[in-house]
Write the structure tokens for this entry.
Amino acid sequence: MKCAEGWLKQGYMRVLAANELADGAILPAVVDGWPIVLARSEGRAFALLNRCSHAASAFAPDGRMRRGALMCPAHGARFSVDGGTCIGAAYPALRTFPCREKDGWIEVVLPDHAPSADEQPVTRP
């Protein structure tokens, strides 16, 4: 049963033990083929597509987070972890995924389809 177009109602999937993501940290993960980046800002966990909307680069493991914003390692664009909006430029917002902490785990809801090529980060030499 679906709760919204393209989302499974089955709910949240465990991705990482909550104590493994420190405040201000980002970590990459691949869950059901989806490249995501987990981030913790001001005690809250967030899940976003691990792909810059401008340069198509992965944010993690080489990027960083500062003041609640992911910084692209390829060109320095900044995106809010709370909503994915670009800060200070007109790049499209990042795709975000529902994320919560429950019973000591960070859990994420992902689409019920595989990610497209446009949702995969580009590896740079």
The two ends are 42 Å apart (CA to CA). Confidence is low (pLDDT under 50) at residues 1-9. The CA atoms of residues 32 and 114 lie 8 Å apart. The longest strand covers residues 34-41.
